[in-house]
Amino acid sequence: MTKKTSRIIAIVMLVIAVVFVGYAFNHPEGTWPWSNRVTLPFYAIYIVIMVTLFIAPFRKK
Questions:
Q1: What is the Cα–Cα distance from 19 to 16, expressed in whole angstroms?
Q2: At 1, is the secondary structure helix, strand, or coil?
Q3: pLDDT tens digits, one per residue of 17-52
Q4: Phi, psi angles (nearest 5°) of residue 31
Q5: How many whole angstroms separate alpha carbon 14 and alpha carbon 54?
Q6: Whole-prediction pTM value?
Q7: Quick check: 9 and 53 in contact, CB under 8 A?
């Protein structure tokens, strides 16, 4: 994966996350059908992938 592709994917993921949080704050009645024990690991994995895609292009080989 190229640096540019990695950054574009990370930026798209960040935009999706911001839109999701904005929607979630304005619609508290919309909840996931499962507990937070399932939801929070999904959020954590999403954030780890996004941060990795931002950082990966700066690593030296």
A1: 5
A2: coil
A3: 999 999 989 988 888 888 889 989 999 999 999 999
A4: -120, 165
A5: 10
A6: 0.77
A7: yes
Measured CA to CA in angstroms, residue 49 lies from 27, 39, 60 at distances of: 26, 16, 19
53: burial class by Cβ within 10 Å (0-12, 13-18, 19+)?
A: buried
Rounded Cα gap, residues 61 and 59, in angstroms? 7
- C-alpha distances in Å from residue 53, one per residue of 4, 24, 25: 10, 25, 26
Q: Is 36 exposed, middle or buried (0-12, 13-18, 19+ CB in 10 A)?
A: exposed
CA-nearest of 17, 20, 21, 10 to 51 is 10
